[in-house]
Every structure is written in structure tokens, then in C-alpha cells.
Amino acid sequence: MRRVFLALLSGFSLAGCSSLATDPYAQSAQYLQSIPVCCEHINEFKWSQLTENEKLNFEISEASSVGLFGRDKSYFSAFELSPKSGTVALILRSKMAEGHVIAPYVQFFDQKFQLQKEIAPQDFLIKHSDALTYNRFEIQLDIDAQNTPYFVIFTRDQSVGKKISVPHPARLRAQQSGEPMPMVTDPIYVSANTGQFELTVTTRTFSNRAVAKTSSDQAQSAIKVQPDTQSYYFNAIEQAVAANNLPKALSLLDEAKALGVEGAQEVFIKAVNSK
User: Fold this and answer.
1) Which residues, listed in sequence order, are joined to residue 102 by a DSSP beta bridge?
2) What stretch of H or E contains 92?
3) Is 80 exceeded by the pLDDT of residue 21?
4) Of the residues 139, 160, 210, 269, which has the maximum number of CB atoms within 10 A of its CB?
5) In the chain, what's the furthest Cα-to-Cα distance?
6) Whole-number pLDDT of residue 210
């Protein structure tokens, strides 16, 4: 009896592993958890600069950056509205294609990268396909680009894996025309952490915003090498070369360059040539 129980238990375990192995969305979610986030702070995101009027198709994929939004880890795309834009009409579509879709969340930030607003999937409309477009989540917003110039598109763990049923076009036509309901199956999409988007930006009024500096910009502008730091590296490089310790000299040179110490390369070359 014990052998039978163990055999059944083993079978259930293998079935569970097999189910996980054949579920691409579960695999993708599991893989995502193993990837380190790109940045500790929002202002360190790589922001894609938008023009005043633009329409683009893009994809959030496993090649996208990974961020932490509250407790949720997600692939994301980050955008900055044009500093010349005032009021902007924004249309965002998350396409239902190849059996899956991202249930989108959008966060808007001010010039100091403070969160001002979050849009959730329930704020979107589900639009049905026609001759030119897919079934999709769609939202239209008016945004003040001066107050909230930055926005990020991502999803949350609670949405991934859920099934979304969309009425079949033939069923919709029958409802509208009063004809008998056809025997058709409504398409079902799985909410995933990767998917395709379409973004349209239209500037309605213009303004002039000073572009905020990201943390990397601020770090570069804040670097002012003190004279004693410069002297330290110059002397240390010269002493390392004089002692025939070239690896140490090169290491010091790399450190000096990383700190923005000007003239370190010339000191190194001069020290080598004078030997």
C-alpha cells in the first residue's frame, strides 16, 4: 500500500513539474524573479525622449529593463514628454496578440520624480479588433507635460496569468443587428509580463520646461576634483611607474579616470617615457 501511495505522490509531483515546464507564462514569471532590477531609484531609469507629436509601436519584452514597483518586479518602458509640450493628448494601446496581452499599469511622475498618478488595467477600455487593429486595452488621457513629464508602463504580479475573454466580432454584430446568436467561441488571452504597445502623443498646447537632470547627469556635473586628490593620483602613478609596478600604475590610472581627474593619462605617459 505504501508503494502505491508513493507512486501516486511521485506521479502528482511530476505532473506539477510538467505543468510548470509547459506553461510559458509561468516560466517567464519565474525567470523574471531571477533578474536583478536595473535601478534603485526612478530617476535612474533610461527615459526615452518623445517629440511633440509622435506615434510609435514598441514592445515590452524579456530584453527590456526590469524595475521594482512597490513589491512587484516587472519589465517596463519609460518615457519623457517633450519639454516644449504643454497639454498633451496621449493614447496608449496594449495589443492582444498571439494569445497574450500585458494588463498595463502607468505611473506618472513630476520633475522631481515624485509619483503623481497611477493608471490601472480597470481604467482602460477593451476595444475590439477591426480591419486595421487588434483587440486591445486602450486609454485616452490629457496630460500636463509641465507637471508630469515622465511616465512608466509596466504590469503587476497580481495581473499575470489571468485570462481575459473578449466577445467574438460575430457575436457583437449579432447583438447590434438583432440577428440570431452565432455558434462561435470568444477569444481568450492570458495576461503576461511581455507584450506589444502602440503610443500616440499629440501636443495641444506648447510651453517651455527646463529639462530635469537625471541622477547620472547630476553626478557628472557634481564631480569637482579637489587639488589634493589630483596630486595624490599624479604622485602615486609616478611612484608606481618608478618602482616598475606597471599593473598598479594602470589601476591608479583607471581610478583617476573614473573620478574625472584630468591630466592623469599625460602623467602616466610622461612617467613611462622618462624611465
Assistant:
1) 192
2) strand 87-95
3) no
4) 160
5) 96
6) 66
